[in-house]
Structure formats: C-alpha cells, structure tokens
Amino acid sequence: MAEYRANKSGINADAQARINSKYNDNIGQEILEWIKVLTGEPANTSGDADNVYEVLKDGTLLCKLVNAIEEGSVKKINQSTMAFKCMENINAFLEAAKKLGVPPQETFQTIDLWEKQNLYSVLICLQSLGRKAGNYGKPSIGPKEADRNVRNFSEEQLKSGQNVISLQYGTNKGQQSGITFGNRRQM
Questions:
Q1: What is the pLDDT of residue 135?
Q2: How far is residue 90's CA from residue 72's CA, in Å, rounded to a whole number?
Q3: Is 22 among the domain residues?
Q4: 117 neighbors 111 (Cβ within 8 angstroms)
Q5: Number of structural domains, the chain?
Q6: What are the Cα distances from residue 143, in Å, to 84, 90, 129, 131?
Q7: What span, in angstroms and rounded, lies between the C-alpha atoms of 116 and 78?
Q8: Residue 26 domain-assigned (yes or no)
Q9: Which residue range or ranges hold the Calponin-homology (CH) domain (predicted)?
Q10: Residue 52: which of 140, 123, 128, 141 has the closest Cα?
C-alpha cells in the first residue's frame, strides 16, 4: 500500500504535488453523495482525499456501484482485504465501467487508487460513469452529455466548397507593400 513506499523527492515530488493539486474536495463529496444515493453506502461522504481513498480503496463499493447501475456487471466481489483481491475488484469495476460506456481515456489505472497516486483520475472516471448512469435510468451527476447532431449535405453543397479559395493560399485583396520574403539581394 501507499504507506509502505518511500517518499518521493526532487522532480518526482514536484510532479506528484502537481497531480495532487488538481484534486477537488467538492467534486469528491458530490461523487460520494451520488454513490450513497445508488448503493446506500458510505456513511461518511466527506470529499477530502483521505476519506475518498479509505472509502474506495478496496474496490467493493465501486463494484456495488456498477452493479447498482446495471445488475450483474461484476459477477464476483472479493470481500478479502488482501492486496491482489482488492486490485481485482478495482479492475473488475474498470472493465464494467468501460462496458457501460465510459471512454478508455477517462478511466484510471488500478495503481492510481490502490496506492493513492492519482485520485484526480479516479474522480474523472466516476464523473464519467455518473454521466452514463442517466442512460440506464439512474440518477446522474455532472454536466449533461451532448446529444448527437448529424448533418447531411447534398453532393451539390459538398462540391460548391471546392470552388472557394482558402485564405491559406494567399489573397490579392488589400495592400501587399512592405511584404518581403527572405533576405534582399545585396548588390
């Protein structure tokens, strides 16, 4: 676990401090309250990083969360506190979240939660899952996901765009005096 690791120093400490500075207690509290609405747990919905870590680190609540959104998403939830069993729970949650529609770039690595390396990415994943929960008839959190806006253009409209000369090609409009390219010829 994270408490058995040596403290980071130098550039690694700076990088970790930058990651930790992104964490937002208000978002953490909003997410824990949303989880409580769906699962009935946890008792303490304080959004500070230590509480979020303690509540989510073994992965059982995360598995219960995806099962509350769609029944049977995680078949087996390990109740053991052994490290690899807890990391299996977190990994099972991540796989279920991807199946529920969370994009891979918004997920986190198991180690980010288990060793408390990047709780900000955990919050991003849970917010994304919160947006997708609305698709399954459950309460959602965060900004509403955009609706699809498909546009159909006719062949005539598409071909008319080929007759327009882009300004990237230059223009003969306006004054061009004073424009030079390269060095002048020295005689």
A1: 87
A2: 16
A3: yes
A4: yes
A5: 1
A6: 34, 25, 12, 7
A7: 20
A8: yes
A9: 25-134
A10: 123
Rounded mean pLDDT, 47-58: 90
Domain extent, residue 14, equals: 2-136
Four-residue CA torsion sign, 125, 126, 127, 132: positive
In a domain, 159, yes or no: no
CB 147 within 8 A of CB 135: no
Confidence of residue 164 (pLDDT cuts 50, 70, 90): confident
Of 62, 60, 75, 135, give the one whose Cα is nearest residue 101.
135
pTM exceeds 0.70, yes or no: yes
CA separation for the pair 118, 39 (Å, rounded):
24
User: Could you tell me if residue 64 is inside a domain?
Assistant: yes
DSSP code at position 43? S
Beta strands in the chain (DSSP E): none
DSSP line for 77-126 = -----SHHHHHHHHHHHHHHHHHTT--GGG---HHHHHTTS-HHHHHHHH
Q: What separation, in Å, do the N-terminal and C-terminal C-alpha atoms of the chain show?
A: 75
Angle 60-69/49-56 helices, nearest 10 degrees? 80
What CATH number corresponds to the domain at position 53? Answer: 1.10.418.10
